[in-house]
Amino acid sequence: MARIGPFICMLALAAAAGCGGGNDAEDAEATVREFVTAVNERDADTYCDDLITDEFREQSTFSEGDEARASCKSTLRAIKGLRIELVRIARTRVDGDKATVTAVLRRSGTPIRQRFQLEKDGGDWKIAGGAQ
Fold first, then answer.
1. Listed residue (20, 111, 117) closest to 59, CA to CA
2. Residue 121 CA: distances (Å) to CA of 91, 97, 103, 127
3. 10, 24, 34, 67: which could form a disulfide with 63 (CB 3.0–4.6 Å)?
4. Distance from the Cα of residue 33 to its chain's centroid
5. What is the pTM of this model?
6. Which residues of 108-117 are buried (b: 16+ CB within 10 A; e: fewer)?
7. pLDDT tens digits, residue range 55-90?
8. CB-count exposure of residue 9 (10 Å: 0-12, 13-18, 19+)
């Protein structure tokens, strides 16, 4: 239970891999949309394996490698009552293999402007961090 606090913060800060090929801005935005779906469905495999970078997963779980992956999955599955809605994508900036997507999310009826930092990983956009 003590590990849920940092994980909820990570979810509030963060947010399938990009579609590959095509438009980088659209692909980065698709990753944010898939993040919202994975969180709402508690799809730990998609979230922990496909949507976040290894470094972000390790930082947010305070562990490494397979332990970080297992911790990420068990923590996401254990969260109850968290539901977020993507209201809109406000802005997307792409600079090489890095992108910033600013989205307006709604959590518990309250709109929150959330900035997602993304990085290309093997040709796919993954969430590498975030800030409000």
1. 117
2. 21, 8, 21, 10
3. 67
4. 9
5. 0.81
6. eeeeeebbbb
7. 999 999 999 999 999 999 999 999 988 899 999 999
8. exposed
